[in-house]
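Thread: assembly with ligand

MN 10:42: here's the input set. Chains plus the small molecule as SMILES. Want everything predicted jointly, not piecewise.
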Amino acid sequence: MKLSSLSRILAGTALTILVGTSGAVAAELNLYTTREPGLIQPLLDSFTKATSIKVNTIFLKDGLAERVASEGDKSPADVLMTVDAGNLIDLVEKGLTQSVQSTTLTGSIPPALRDPNGNWFALSLRARAVFAARNLDVKAITYEQLADPAWKGKICIRSGQHPYNVALIGSYIAHHGEEAAQKWLAALKGNLARKAGGGDREVARDILGGLCDIGVANSYYVGLMRSGKGGPEQQKWAQAIKMVLPTFEKGGTQVNITGAAVARHARNRAEAIKLLEYLVSDEAQKIYAEANYEYPVNPRAAVDPLIGEYGVLKPDTVELAKGVGFRKAASALAEKVGFDN
Ligand SMILES: [Fe+2]
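BT 11:07: finished. Tokens for the full assembly:
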């Protein structure tokens, strides 16, 4: 073969590669998220590496629903990602999502942790846990037992109006009804060692300080404190406690989620679904769990050892959407029993 014809073939091949590559780069999607960019960027990078789909991220601290609603059918959003089941359900109720049917998604996410109509899907879980003094003999506890007079003056917890506690009270109502929930909440308030307030990490701080024996706090804070990511002082707080995963008497552990939905007017629908499917894959779930100490939603994926040590999470089987439906009632109950006074 003459050199000139060889170079013509090579040039042709190069052209094909160029066209091929530019074709792949053209695949992209727009992600609107309230999750901190540092937490999700490693996941998006590995998604792009696996699929050649570029992800343009728009980070919104607040007002995600308002932003998408105001953009209307011109909205460039393809995927909406947020924390808290209430926020996801809010997106659905505002008509900002669309239904997705995917056996990959339904096969990886338990039914209680996704919308029955496919409008949203949980991606990771955080448990409303109990922190207990390390030397205390508490191996198992139910949410119901937090109202037991044996704990009088021994429990620390943040405000009853904080979304984490409103969600917990909402789930309690879903299990027992409003009347029983009110009795429980009043009794729990009667058991407090100090005024309800502060953050979840302060529960560990106050256990170390001897103010309380147990408290209610989110699971990922244990990982944040133990790992040293929260600084050396918080590491000491973490050393004072162990985490117990409480359950409802007839149910599992109350969880909240981070999750995502495909936007109603998504122009890159197929790519959007691919991103959701990737995010629940064993690989992505592991990256997610290690980055933020949350529990994978996919039961096959591993949890970070700093959290895994405290046992296997069994999420409550009452649909998240049901608990969310009781949030207004939950907040009103906290007000009624003077939980924060
Ligand atoms: Fe938090």
